Amino acid sequence: MSSGERHGRPVPPRAPGRYVPARGVYTEEARLRRLSWLRSVTGAALDSLHHTRLDAAALTGNIEGLVGTVEIPVGVAGPLLFHGTHVQGEVYAPMATTEGALVSSATRGALAVTMAGGVSTHALSQAMTRAPVFAFSRLAGAARFASAVVQHLGDLRTAVGQVSRHAVLVSVEPVVLGRTVHLRFRYTTGDASGQNMTTACTWHACQWILRQPYLVADGELESFLIEGNTSGDKKASAQAVAEGRGIRVAADCLLPAGIVERVLRTTPDELVGGYRHITAGAVHSGVLGSHANTANMVAAIFTATGQDIACVHESGSGQFVLERTPDGVYASMTLPGLALGTVGGGTHLPTQRELLAAMGCAGPGSAARLAEIIAGFALALDLSTVSAAVSGDFVGAHERLGRNRPPHRNGVPRRTVPPAAAERRTDGPATPAPREPGPAAVPHPAPGHDRAAPSPGEP
């Protein structure tokens, strides 16, 4: 068949100038050529894309058709004091976002938790899944295959080991749906998110399966797909919430009543009462898990650190819990599956690499550390968000910090928060309702940290 034919039919020639030029070429010259082409076909100036700090030659595994880069503001939330399995001491979190009030709210929650003694965190487990599907002619063939394939876990591990030194096949679980078998491969992947890694490993393991006549008899198998959509890849699902896909991590803290009143500007009873209402609403509307806005924290840190941003859809589910205690409030956050890594993907890009290093998330075990940091700050953010909703400060904070134009009074633009006070403000009202907060214990700094703990009078 000639190059001008497809399935025996003539193929019309490509219209000149219609297709992106220099495809597959990773040089600065090729990038500028594509940018010039895009200007010509759209009529847009695209001046902001002309310069980039990224080396086009280093992006071969990250993007195709490169024309430029997009800048996203990065703010810093914290400090938040950790007493975790993989992270101890005060940590600041980089948050890439364009949502005003988000960093301020996270910082307020972090202040409350730190003043109360800090947050405990623990990375519970890791599991990355890939789920190919085998379609047989009848149920009998599918059932026989499902029973037999699980007996060859050792052989499948050998096939996986020929592809990757980092992926470890933990289990293979067949799920029979009619005449099809969805074969759920579960891996640990070290400090990598492992989605591409496990895809390649699963493909080669399935090629071994297809070569075994005692597993796949002649005439029984009709088709095979590398992903049958039961892994939960980039999709929020009840299965992912229950079993986890990525790193499962939990965080908790105790907040004395005085800190709830002074920093979060509500009372323990009001805070827990409001939490019950939003939990009931989550159940009624079918939300996976129950939380205020964990996806905000996950998305902000994922973007800042070079994660696969589409995984926010599955990683943003969480279970936020508040309970009344005799002295205040118990709070916890469980994130069932953070699909993240500190190697691979976009983590090698200069800014993303520097921000990971700033959090101490480089080297062995750093993926679990990053997961614990995200869980701790997600807990802090939900505490602040629910408190703002309960106290009536939620809209005011967004009006003050989340608007694209300055507020006006009598037609004159003004700053609501003076520059000197802006860094010390929390998401509370300008003049909080009068209360008599009880004394709040101030934690001592973690060993090795010289920064003075915030005083009880700090807003």
From TrEMBL:
Belongs to the HMG-CoA reductase family. Keywords: NADP, Oxidoreductase. This is hydroxymethylglutaryl-CoA reductase (NADPH). PANTHER family: 3-HYDROXY-3-METHYLGLUTARYL-COENZYME A REDUCTASE. SUPFAM superfamilies: NAD-binding domain of HMG-CoA reductase, Substrate-binding domain of HMG-CoA reductase. It comes from the Bacteria. It comes from Streptomyces halstedii. Residues 1-20, 398-459 are annotated as: Disordered. Coiled coil: none annotated. Residues 431-446 have a biased composition (Pro residues). InterPro entries: HMG_CoA_Rdtase (IPR002202), HMG_CoA_Rdtase_cat_sf (IPR023074), HMG_CoA_Rdtase_CS (IPR023076), HMG_CoA_Rdtase_eu_arc (IPR004554), HMG_CoA_Rdtase_NAD(P)-bd_sf (IPR009023), HMG_CoA_Rdtase_sub-bd_dom_sf (IPR009029).
